[in-house]
Design goal:
This protein is α+β, with helices and mostly antiparallel strands. It folds into three domains: about 280 residues, Beta-Lactamase (2-Layer Sandwich); about 60 residues; about 210 residues, Heat Shock Protein 90 (2-Layer Sandwich), CATH 3.30.565.10. The protein is built from 16 helices and 18 strands. The strands form four sheets. Strands 7-6-11-10-9-8 form a six-stranded antiparallel β-sheet. Helix 11 runs antiparallel to helix 12. The radius of gyration is 33 Å and the shape is flat. The protein starts with a helix and ends with a helix.
C-alpha cells in the first residue's frame, strides 16, 4: 500500500472524526444538563443537609452546657438560700453585696459568658460582666417578658448597641426533699453571638456555603453572613420561585432549613446557585477541550499504528491471552519510537502494576487480619481487669457480698461479650455490653459517676462492629477525668443520619486544647502502629471502621479545654452483616 492509497482513507477518517466530534459535543452538553447538573445539585443539597444537621447539634450542645453549668455550680440553690435569709443581713446593701459576690464567683468560674443579670423576687437587680447596667436591665426585661409562665422558650436573641447576644433565661428555683418549691428570682445569661457562631457554625461552612439561625420572631440571631445578624430574614432575602434572592446583591441562593433543637428557632443553610452552576460550565468547557484533544490524538494514533503493525499486535494479542490464563509475564521491548513501541511499554507497565496490585492486595488482607488480631488482644484492657478484680476484693472485704456478686455478674457479661468471635453485632447488643461496663463503673466510683444512653427503637437492630463503644469510654475514664474534681458524667446517643448511623459519646471531663485535639486526630488517622502511651481505643476503633466500611467512615473528635470532649463515630446503616464469619476466615 503506497501513499496515494492512504490519502483518500484519511480524508474519510477526518470527515468522520469531525462528525463524531459534533455529535459528541451535543451529547456532552445534553448529558451535563440532564444528568451532571441534577447530580451536583443533589450532592450540594445533601452536603447542605448534613452541615445544617451537624451545626444544629453542635450549637445546641454548646448552648445547653450553660444550663448544666448552672446546676453543677449550685448557683441556683446558693442564690435561693441567700434570698430566703435576706432578713438576716444587717442592711439591704449587705444583702445586695452578698448576691453580687455569688454571681461574680459564678461568672469568673466559667469562660464564654459575656454577662449575667439576676433579679430576686423583691426586684433587687444585680448585673455582672461586659454589659452596662442600663442595657442589662432592658435586655433582662425583654428576655423575661412572655416566658415566666411558659418554660418551653428559654432562649432568644438580643442587641446591646453594636453587640449581638444570645440570651438564656433561667428561673432560679428548686424543690427540696419534701417537694416544696423554693424560689429566689430570675437569672439571664448573655452569650456573645460571635462566640456562638465560632463554636457551632464556622467549622461547618465551606466554600460559599453559609449557616445561620433564625429565632422565633424571624430575626437572624447568629450566622456566617455577619452583616445580616440582627436583621429579619424577610428583610434581607426575597423568595424567587424555589430560590431566594439577596436584596442587597440580587444574587440567587438555594436555601434550606430545619427546626432547631432550640424550641421555635430554625437552623438555615444557604448556598449561591453560581457555586452549583460554575462547576457545570467548567466541566463543559474542559470536556470540549479534552474531546478535541482525544479526536486529534485518535487520528494521529490511527495513522501511526496503521502501518506495518500486524505482527507486533498479533504477538501482543497472544500475550494478552496468556494474562487471561493467569501468566503475568512481560514481553521483550521492541525498538520502535511509534505508538506500537509505547503500547509494548504500556503493556509491560500494566503487567508490573498488576503484579504490584496483587502483592498490595495480599499485604492489605494481611493487615486486615493483623488489625483484627490486635483488636482481640486489646479488647479487655488489663487496667480494667485489674481495677475490677480489686473492686471485687474491696467489696468482699467490706462484707457486701450481694454487691460483689453483682459486680462479678456484670464483669462476666463483659468478658463473655468480648470473647465472642463475631465481628459485627446488633447495636442493642453493643449498648447492653456498655451498660454492664457502666454498672461496674458505678460501683467503682460510688456516686461520683453518672451516665445516660439514648438508643431509638428504629435502629437498635442494625449491625455495628463489636466492641465499638467500651474502648472510647475507657479512654475517657483514663484521660478526661484525670484532673476533674466534679462528678464524672458520660452521655451516649445513637442517631440515624442521612448516610449512616452516628454514635455520640460526650463527657464533662477536662477536655483538650485545639493543639492536643489536632495531635490526637492526626495520630488516629495515621498509618503508624498503635502506641501504648496514646489513645489505643480511639486509633483501634478508627482503623477497624475504615478497614471494614471504607474511608468515609470513622471517628471524629470535638473538644474544648475545660468543657469536655465529644467523640462522634460514623458507620453505615447495616441491616445485615457485611462481613460474615466465613469470609473473615478465608485465606488470602
Amino acid at each position: 500500500m503506497n501513499s496515494r492509497d492512504i490519502k483518500p482513507f484519511w480524508r474519510k477518517m477526518f470527515n468522520v472524526a469531525i462528525m463524531l466530534y459534533i455529535v459528541s459535543t451535543v451529547l456532552l452538553v445534553a448529558i451535563n444538563i440532564m444528568v451532571v447538573f441534577p447530580k451536583l445539585q443533589k450532592e450540594a443539597e445533601t452536603n447542605l443537609d448534613n452541615a445544617i444537621s451537624l451545626s444544629d447539634k453542635v450549637m445546641y450542645s454548646y448552648l445547653n452546657q450553660f444550663d448544666y453549668i448552672i446546676n453543677d455550680k449550685s448557683i441556683v440553690r446558693d442564690l435561693v438560700n441567700i434570698y430566703e435569709r435576706r432578713d438576716e443581713y444587717i442592711s439591704l446593701q449587705k444583702y445586695r453585696i452578698s448576691i453580687e459576690e455569688k454571681v461574680k464567683d459564678f461568672y469568673f468560674s466559667f469562660s464564654g459568658i459575656s454577662g449575667i443579670a439576676y433579679r430576686d423576687n423583691d426586684n433587687n437587680f444585680v448585673n455582672v460582666g461586659e454589659i452596662t447596667l442600663d442595657n442589662a436591665s432592658v435586655l433582662f426585661d425583654e428576655a423575661v417578658d412572655g416566658y415566666e409562665n411558659d418554660r418551653q422558650y428559654t432562649w432568644r436573641s438580643a442587641n446591646a448597641g453594636d453587640k449581638k447576644y444570645i440570651v438564656y433565661y433561667k428561673n432560679i428555683c428548686y424543690f427540696d426533699g419534701v417537694f416544696e418549691m423554693h424560689s429566689g428570682g430570675k437569672m439571664v445569661i448573655f452569650i456573645d453571638e460571635e462566640q456562638v457562631y465560632k463554636e457551632s457554625f464556622a467549622n461547618a461552612e465551606n466554600g460559599m456555603t453559609r449557616m445561620f439561625t433564625i429565632d422565633h420572631e424571624g430575626y437572624i440571631c447568629c450566622g456566617g453572613i455577619r452583616e445580616y445578624v440582627g436583621k429579619k430574614f424577610d428583610d434581607v432575602y426575597t423568595r424567587k420561585g424555589n430560590f431566594f434572592a439577596a436584596n442587597d446583591t440580587k444574587e440567587i441562593y438555594y436555601v434550606k432549613h430545619i427546626p432547631s433543637s432550640i424550641e421555635g428557632w430554625k437552623t438555615v443553610g444557604i448556598i449561591p446557585m453560581r457555586e452549583i452552576y460554575d462547576p457545570i460550565i467548567l466541566i463543559i468547557l474542559s470536556s470540549f477541550m479534552v474531546l478535541l484533544l482525544i479526536v486529534i490524538a485518535a487520528l494521529f494514533a490511527f495513522y501511526k499504528t496503521s502501518r506495518g503493525i500486524n505482527v507486533p499486535l498479533i504477538r501482543l494479542s497472544e500475550q494478552l491471552k496468556n494474562i487471561e490464563n493467569g501468566h503475568y509475564d512481560t514481553i521483550e521491548q521492541i525498538e520502535d519510537e511509534t505508538e506500537i513501541g509505547y503500547l509494548y511499554y504500556s503493556f509491560n507497565e500494566m503487567v508490573s502494576k498488576l503484579n504490584k496490585q496483587f502483592n498490595e492486595n495480599y499485604i492489605l488482607n494481611l493487615k486486615i487480619k493483623e488489625a483484627y488480631i490486635q483488636t482481640l488482644e486489646k479488647q479487655i484492657n488489663p487496667h480494667f481487669i485489674f481495677n475490677t478484680l480489686q473492686l471485687i476484693q474491696m467489696i468482699t472485704l467490706a462484707g457486701k457480698t450481694q454487691d460483689a456478686f453483682n459486680v462479678c455478674g456484670y464483669f462476666g457479661e463483659v468478658v463473655r461479650f468480648n470473647l465472642n468471635d463475631a465481628t459485627e453485632v446488633r447495636i442493642y447488643e453493643e449498648i447492653d455490653n456498655l451498660k454492664n461496663y457502666f454498672k461496674i463503673l458505678e460501683f467503682r466510683y460510688y456516686g461520683e459517676f453518672e451516665y445516660t444512653i439514648s438508643l431509638p427503637d428504629d435502629i437498635k437492630d442494625f449491625y455495628t462492629i463489636k466492641f465499638l463503644l467500651q474502648p472510647i469510654v475507657e479512654n475517657a475514664m483514663q484521660h478526661a477525668f484525670e484532673y476533674n474534681k466534679s462528678k464524672c458524667r458520660i452521655d451516649v446517643l445513637v442517631r440515624r443520619m442521612n448516610d449512616g448511623i452516628v454514635f455520640i459519646i460526650k463527657d464533662n471531663g477536662i477536655g483538650m486544647t485545639k493543639e492536643k485535639a489536632k495531635e490526637v486526630t492526626e495520630y488516629i488517622e495515621s498509618e503508624s502502629n498503635i502506641s501504648k502511651s496514646k489513645s489505643i481505643g480511639l486509633k483501634n476503633t478508627n482503623q477497624r471502621i475504615k478497614l471494614l466500611y471504607g474511608e468515609k467512615y470513622g471517628v471524629r473528635i470535638y473538644s474544648k479545654y475545660g468543657k469536655g470532649t465529644t467523640i462522634m463515630i460514623h458507620i453505615p446503616e447495616n441491616e445485615r452483616k457485611k462481613h460474615l464469619k466465613e469470609e473473615e476466615q478465608t485465606d488470602v
